[in-house]
TrEMBL record:
<keyword id="KW-0456">Lyase</keyword>
<feature type="binding site">
    <location>
        <position position="302"/>
    </location>
    <ligand>
        <name>substrate</name>
    </ligand>
</feature>
<dbReference type="GO" id="GO:0009089">
    <property type="term" value="P:lysine biosynthetic process via diaminopimelate"/>
</dbReference>
<protein>
    <recommendedName>
        <fullName>Diaminopimelate decarboxylase</fullName>
        <ecNumber>4.1.1.20</ecNumber>
    </recommendedName>
</protein>
<comment type="similarity">
    <text>Belongs to the Orn/Lys/Arg decarboxylase class-II family. LysA subfamily.</text>
</comment>
<dbReference type="InterPro" id="IPR022653">
    <property type="entry name" value="De-COase2_pyr-phos_BS"/>
</dbReference>
<dbReference type="Pfam" id="PF00278">
    <property type="entry name" value="Orn_DAP_Arg_deC"/>
</dbReference>
<comment type="pathway">
    <text>Amino-acid biosynthesis; L-lysine biosynthesis via DAP pathway; L-lysine from DL-2,6-diaminopimelate: step 1/1.</text>
</comment>
<comment type="subunit">
    <text>Homodimer.</text>
</comment>
<feature type="binding site">
    <location>
        <position position="218"/>
    </location>
    <ligand>
        <name>pyridoxal 5'-phosphate</name>
    </ligand>
</feature>
<keyword id="KW-0028">Amino-acid biosynthesis</keyword>
<feature type="binding site">
    <location>
        <position position="298"/>
    </location>
    <ligand>
        <name>substrate</name>
    </ligand>
</feature>
<keyword id="KW-0663">Pyridoxal phosphate</keyword>
<dbReference type="Pfam" id="PF02784">
    <property type="entry name" value="Orn_Arg_deC_N"/>
</dbReference>
<comment type="function">
    <text>Specifically catalyzes the decarboxylation of meso-diaminopimelate (meso-DAP) to L-lysine.</text>
</comment>
<dbReference type="InterPro" id="IPR022644">
    <property type="entry name" value="De-COase2_N"/>
</dbReference>
<keyword id="KW-0457">Lysine biosynthesis</keyword>
Length: 412
């Protein structure tokens, strides 16, 4: 999936466009499984929220992955993509008991993150195996919006509420088969992750019939040359040793589970956009593309940095540009970036566009969402059509009869 192939794909399918490299996804999956080869039972549940196109889900299923879901809709997508119910874990936040019961009826693994629902579900369905999401009160994540394990987070059951949790389990006689945590995304310090893991191990001792311990994910990927990333190989060695020690003390071989999303698909994705206008102002040269935060919101929402290159002029001299979108609000993708000289009509490529990019796209400004392409075995396959005006109107109800003006009401 080099620059020339990306250009050809843009010519074939138009821009803006998301393109995903299946080979890179598979390589990341194998890297993670290799890092934890020392455990007897490993389960990687791909976090569907990162990129939920059904063709990508089928690819994950083909690789042997399980599926991490956060909504009943993702559960149904996973089942449609061929995942077996028992290979899907459902970890919602703040949803109704009715949605959790609907997911349970489909046969997936339930993961509950609050005491209220735990008590209600356990009282009605004590025989259904349930995993419990713990909040370890450990801060991890590259941005406050993606740090979910700290004391002020809405996610998980606080470790300080363990006595209350155990009382509910005892009174309902629930079947607790898993313990789970997720500290946040973009983990830089594996020692912080290992510290949180110790809290999870200590919590797990309270439950005598566990099948698995789920450590979430949040592994950081590099966003530019020389960027730091989570050392999954070192984490694999250290956590494998500690996990195997725990299993020996526990008296049972448990499954070690993770829920990688960004780690698997981020680097596999490229976002292609066409330059509409090169605009010189008194202080800046803007390259305005046929996109905006309606297609790629991460730079505006998280302050995320995506490497941007001009694949139409890869050998041109570098100049400074601020790459911006066409939304009628500030939507800057990158300020004062050194990019090969840009001309109107050139195709710019945004790297690391596989995770939380298309899935967070919208129709803001009544713009169409982009198409998606999967690069697989050296060929480009369209996996989502570009939207049309009919898609904008779909599900809208035009009550024009309410606003028809009668002839008698017209003043002559």
């Amino acid at each position: 999936m080099d620059s020339q192939n990306l250009l050809n794909i843009a010519k074939q399918f138009g821009a803006p466009l998301y393109v995903y490299d299946a080979e890179k996804i598979a390589a990341q999956y194998q890297r993670l499984t290799k890092a934890f080869k020392g455990v007897s039972s490993l389960r990687l549940n791909y976090a569907a929220k990162a990129l939920s196109n059904i063709s990508v889900l089928r690819l994950m299923n083909n690789l042997g992955s399980g599926l991490d879901t956060v909504s009943i809709q993702e559960v149904k997508l996973g089942l449609m993509a061929g995942f077996k119910p028992e290979s899907i874990i459902y970890t919602p936040n703040g949803v109704s008991l009715e949605e959790i019961e609907e997911a349970s009826a489909l046969g997936v693994q339930i993961n509950i993150d609050n005491l209220s629902i735990l008590e209600q579900f356990g009282s009605k369905h004590p025989d259904v195996p349930v995993c419990i999401r713990i909040n370890p009160h450990v801060m991890a994540g590259g941005n406050s919006n993606i740090s979910v394990g700290h004391i002020d987070s809405k996610f998980g059951i606080s470790i300080h509420q363990i006595p209350h949790l155990l009382r509910i389990v005892d009174l309902t006689q629930m079947n607790i088969n898993g313990i789970h945590m997720h500290t946040g995304s973009d983990i830089l310090d594996i020692d912080v992750f290992l510290y949180a893991s110790e809290i999870l191990f200590e919590t797990a001792k309270n439950f005598k019939a566990l099948d698995f311990i789920d450590f979430g994910s949040g592994f950081k990927v590099p966003y530019k040359a020389g960027d730091i990333e989570t050392n999954v190989e070192e984490l694999g060695k250290k956590l494998t040793t500690r996990f195997n020690e725990f299993c020996a003390d526990y008296g049972k071989e448990l499954t070690l589970a993770f829920e990688p999303g960004k780690f698997l698909v981020s680097e596999a994705g490229s976002f292609l956009a066409k330059v509409n206008v090169v605009k010189q102002t008194t202080s800046t040269v803007f390259a305005s593309v046929d996109s905006g935060f309606n297609h790629l919101i991460r730079p505006m929402l998280y302050g995320a940095s995506h490497q941007i290159s001009n694949i139409s002029n890869p050998k041109g001299r570098e100049r400074y540009y601020s790459v911006v979108g066409y939304i009628c609000e500030t939507d800057t993708f990158g300020s004062n970036r050194r990019i090969n000289e840009i001309s109107e009509g050139d195709i710019l490529c945004f790297k690391n566009a596989g995770a939380y990019c298309f899935t967070m796209a919208s129709n803001y400004n009544s713009r169409y969402r982009p198409a998606e392409v999967l690069w697989h075995n050296g060929k480009a396959h369209l996996i989502r059509k570009r939207e049309t005006f009919d898609d904008i109107l779909r599900n809208q109800v035009d009550v024009k009869e309410l606003f028809e003006v009668s002839e008698k009401a017209v003043v002559k």
